[in-house]
Amino acid sequence: MAVSLPIAKKAAFGIRAMTGLLLAALLTLPATSGSRAQSELRIGISAPLSDYFSVIGDQIEAGARAARDVEGTGSLEFFDDACEPKGGARTAEAMVAAGVAVAIGYPCIESFDEAMPILADADTPLILLGVQSEAIAVERRKGNWPVLRLAPKSADEADAIADYMKRAWREVNFAIIDDGTLYGRELAEAVRFRMEEDNLKPVFTDTYRPQLDNQVALIRRLRKAGATHVFVGGDASDAAIIGADAARIGIPLTLAGGTAFLAPASAGTLADGTTLVALPAWPDVMDKPSDEDGMAVSAAHPGNNYLVPAYAALQIALAIFEGKDPAEGFFFGDLLGRTFDTVLGPISFDGNGDVSRNLFRIFVMEDGKPVLAETDSSIGSIQ
């Protein structure tokens, strides 16, 4: 079973530890005005609330409840989709039967694929959390699905790291390598394509053998090609070995990679100076200043946290129906391009229903820990 966000599979990576701190901060948020008109609004929340992926569901449920407690309006109904196709169909049918005005959740593509046609037939809008697949855009247009995706697209990961590399690596000899996996190969190819759009070409490309005890032979090939900076389409364990071996034999290399660079300590320690792209964990959203786009960020921790996005999704759901009778519905097209004020900063959706801004951030390893880059080019423009 595949979960749409790769790091969500590593659910034990500190995610439960952050929930309590973040939930306490979120509960201090002020309620929005005009909320009394929405007192009868029924909102359905679908997430994996049991078994292996329940850590994701716990985050979504906590975020939605926190927003509900602060806003003081809206009736929440929770449904367990178990990250499974049958679960998606079952919960969507239950939501339609319950007469919810808007749905939130479905972080796993397996359950989303089965749920969305049922919700669309009932004209029930969905604020989708987590699913990155580009393929849903085709189905969304074909089926006229009323869905807003409050999550990055799969292309956003490559866009974020390539935008950073175009600035930071413009004057260096860089290589692009991958581990041969579907994720690693596609990410490396996407980054290479975006670099070549700016006439920036790697001096070396290769597919390396992953999970080796050492990568000295690869490092010597990189040195022979003159590469000083290397983008690695692979995971943290291989990147840690490449960095350690390069330092041991005296060949300085600066590494960069994608979300797969986030991993438990058992995967090895990434060398200081290594760059990676990730979603921020937002563990102390109320204590950090917003950036120039109004997005509250944590300067210390990356992660794949669902709690704050779930909070933001409920804020959007409440804003959609503010001052309206939920029974009367609304025109879905009016939501595209509209800006919503949320704990993630101002959020708007493009003509495809996708977030207009890239939510990924650039982190750099310092003293063995990822820290938000001071010059972060990963945030796209607000449209």
Tag the structure with descriptive keywords.
7-stranded mixed sheet; 10 helices; Rossmann fold; disordered N terminus; alpha/beta; 2 domains; elongated; 16% strand; 383 residues; 5-stranded parallel sheet
Question: Would you kindly provide a written description of the structure presented here, covering whatever features stand out?
Answer:
The protein has about 375 residues and is α/β, with parallel strands linked by helices. It has two domains: about 5-150 and about 305-350, Response regulator (Rossmann fold, 3-Layer(aba) Sandwich), CATH 3.40.50; about 155-280 and about 360-370, Response regulator (Rossmann fold, 3-Layer(aba) Sandwich), CATH 3.40.50. It has ten helices and 14 strands. The protein has helices spanning about 15-25, 55-70, 85-100, 110-120, 135-145, 155-170, 180-195, 215-225, 235-250, 305-320, and strands spanning about 40-45, 75-80, 100-105, 125-130, 145-150, 175-180, 205, 230-235, 255, 275-280, 340, 345-350, 360-365, 370. Strands 7-6-8-9-10-13-14 form a seven-stranded mixed sheet. Helix 1 (about 15-25) runs parallel beside helix 2 (about 55-70), helix 3 (about 85-100) runs parallel beside helix 4 (about 110-120) and helix 6 (about 155-170) crosses helix 7. It starts with 14 loop residues before the first helix and ends in an 11-residue tail after the last strand. Residues about 1-15, about 30-40, about 285-300 and about 375-383 have low confidence and may be disordered.
